[in-house]
Amino acid sequence: MIKNITCIGAGYVGGPTMAVMALKNPHIKFHVVDINQSRIDAWMSDELPIYEPGLFEVVQQARGKNLFFSTDVEGAIKEGDMIFISVNTPTKKYGIGKGRAADLKYVELCARQIAEYADDDKIVVEKSTLPVRTAQSIKKILSATGHGPKFQVLSNPEFLAEGTAVEDLMQADRVLIGGDQDEAGLAAIEELVKVYNAWIPRERIITTNIWSSELSKLTANAFLAQRISSINAISALCEATGADVEEVAHAIGTDSRIGPKFLKSSVGFGGSCFQKDILNLVYLCEFFGLHEVARYWEQVVTMNDYQKSRFGSKIISTLFNTVSGKKIAFLGWAFKKDTNDTRESASIYVADQLLNDEASISVYDPQVPEQQMYLDMEELETRPMEVNKQRLTMTDDAYEACKDAHAIAVMTEWDEFKTLDWQRIYDNMKKPAFLFDGRLILDRKKLSDIGFEVYTIGKGK
Ligand code: NAD
Ligand code: UGA
């Protein structure tokens, strides 16, 4: 009987997942720990560290009752009957597998900490996205202690998307739990099934062997990203031929075998996971000698890079082959709407491309702070920070960002951009006033009637 659940890692996954689980399981105590003190402080305050619609209400209902946040990793490991590992697994930036493999050092550290501090039996749950067969390494570390406690390792990948995390958790299409198929493994799976079954119908909880579960997560992300790259590839062909990518997406999406979701053409997918997980899949395929399979999936990322640079190049070529000294307004910096997350956002790469061509960029995003934007640019290491700060600025007003601009680029699909006073924006811009809609959210006809020169991804002239 599970009475205490611990989660190591209070990020975009650990925080919302545990908050919803706590709300639905009032009889279980949840303790979420992180090494990042300021993140924990924020989880305990009215200003949560992540922006996610509906999350604050959920946290408020459970926090202080059966949901607790702290930096006491040791204490939380000792008290947890079930311990979720929900730490980051970024792409490795060094050594073997650099640029492709997932960096598992944070996960390994968690396993070592659990092995060191646990003094009774635990169920350890992989919540982070991990390469298939990681559970084997975790088991090895846990069993190497030889000082008594027994461990069961489960895989329970998370499928929530940022911006809709609470909704996705509350009404999950499915929950996936993988574990050993022996008596102890199946018993551990059942304990986790019970936790989810507090609100997810049993038929939507899928149980598998542990390797299938690990691999299903990478596969799901690869398939989702592949759809975006596929429609983005077609967007380039639409522009060349006069077809309209939205009409094509609608026409193919009504085929029930294809389905309408995830066919929105864009400036390119971003986010912390799609690229990282596909590169990880590519690395795994190469590791197992499956070179053709690796090349196949790698193309999804190649096409995404093409889409981002194609958008940047379109801005430059349209502005008479140079943006040097010109002001470009960016509407949006986050990788999608309804999140303050900027990891791998297309904006970062398009900004870099335009800054290389000496543009001045003014950014407006309703949730991203300026400091974060500079951190994103710094990570690219393209130019000194002073130059980034001179040429890239953020304002907290969309009209200010667009004032005197030669062009506007819509980078994120925030709803509020649709209802801006576009006549006012046009009146205050340099002419010709160019507008590049990288998200297909604006009314092209209306904007053209105002006087804008509009380019929309996937739509010819
Ligand atoms: P994140 O960076 O937001 O959060 C990870 C947290 O773990 C950080 O706050 C970090 O300080 C903490 N941490 C790292 N090592 C620690 C340690 N040893 N002890 C305590 N805390 C530690 O990452 P995230 O976006 O929540 O992603 C976590 C995992 O979930 C990744 O594997 C990711 O691929 C996967 N995932 C993410 C999403 C998403 O939408 N972000 C969705 C599904 C799955
Ligand atoms: C994605 C998956 O959707 C989740 O199921 C998964 O759990 C998560 O990755 C993860 O493993 O981290 P997320 O990256 O948060 O979630 O957001 P998505 O809605 O998938 O969007 C990813 C990117 O694709 C965004 O930049 C978005 O704008 C773009 N996108 C999405 C498109 O360009 N077109 C679409 O049709 C859909």
TrEMBL record:
Protein origin, superkingdom: Bacteria
Pfam families: UDPG_MGDP_dh (PF00984), UDPG_MGDP_dh_C (PF03720), UDPG_MGDP_dh_N (PF03721)
Alphabetized InterPro entries for the sequence: 6-PGluconate_DH-like_C_sf, NAD(P)-bd_dom_sf, UDP-Glc/GDP-Man, UDP-Glc/GDP-Man_DH_C, UDP-Glc/GDP-Man_DH_C_sf, UDP-Glc/GDP-Man_DH_dimer, UDP-Glc/GDP-Man_DH_N, UDPglc_DH_euk
Biological role: Catalyzes the conversion of UDP-glucose into UDP-glucuronate, one of the precursors of teichuronic acid.
Family membership: Belongs to the UDP-glucose/GDP-mannose dehydrogenase family.
Example GO molecular function: NAD binding
Record organism: Cyclonatronum proteinivorum
Protein name in UniProt: UDP-glucose 6-dehydrogenase
Catalytic activity: UDP-alpha-D-glucose + 2 NAD(+) + H2O = UDP-alpha-D-glucuronate + 2 NADH + 3 H(+)
Pathway(s): Nucleotide-sugar biosynthesis; UDP-alpha-D-glucuronate biosynthesis; UDP-alpha-D-glucuronate from UDP-alpha-D-glucose: step 1/1
Entry EC number(s): 1.1.1.22
Residue ranges annotated for the UDP-glucose/GDP-mannose dehydrogenase C-terminal domain, each copy included: 329-444
Sites where the protein binds NAD(+): 9-14, 34, 39, 87-91, 128-129, 162, 273-276, 343
Binding-site list for substrate: 158-162, 217-221, 257, 264-270, 335-336, 439
A single BP term in Gene Ontology: UDP-glucuronate biosynthetic process
Entry keyword set: NAD, Oxidoreductase
Active-site residues (renumbered): 273 (nucleophile)
